[in-house]
Specification:
The protein has 148 residues and is an all-alpha fold. It has one domain. The chain is built from five helices and no strands. The radius of gyration is 18 Å and the shape is elongated. The mean pLDDT is 89.
């Protein structure tokens, strides 16, 4: 029973974190940071795989075929910067992470049909980013009230 209670507590922290104390708000804020780092890993790996596939292709004569890989790596850098800013409590970074995760998810869902593994993997950063926005705003309220 204790194991089930612990598992449910961890799931609740991910899906809808409490933000009524400064410590819990900070934990929820970190959810947005983790969402951004998951997106960094996904975009970096996707960009690297595209580059590796194109490096052995003798038909690649110009840099035009490298544009998708470059875009993926660019998004990885953007998410890394946003994760760093969110770690420090930036509300703008938290909102931007949520917006980009939603935009990224829309792009993925239009490119795949049905419930693909890529769509399921995108759900975790989306859920974490929503909790991160809640935590960031709650933490900011605690800072303004002088409780931290």
């Amino acid at each position: 029973m204790k194991l089930l209670s612990s598992a449910l507590t961890h799931l609740q922290r991910i899906f809808y974190p409490h933000t009524h104390t400064p410590a819990l708000a900070l934990q929820a804020l970190r959810n947005g940071t983790f969402a951004a780092w998951i997106m960094v890993a996904m975009h970096f790996l996707l960009g690297a795989v595209i580059l590796v596939q194109l490096s052995g292709d003798p038909r690649v004569e110009s840099g035009d075929m490298l544009i998708p890989a470059t875009i993926q790596l660019f998004f990885a850098v953007i998410y890394a910067g946003l994760a760093t800013a969110n770690w420090k409590g930036s509300r703008a970074a938290a909102i931007t992470i949520l917006f980009l995760v939603i935009l990224d998810m829309l792009v993925v869902t239009t490119r795949v049909s049905g419930l693909d593994a890529q769509v399921v993997i995108q759900l975790l950063p989306l859920i974490l980013a929503i909790g991160g926005v809640r935590g960031t705003f709650a933490y900011s309220r605690f800072v303004k009230a002088g409780e931290i």
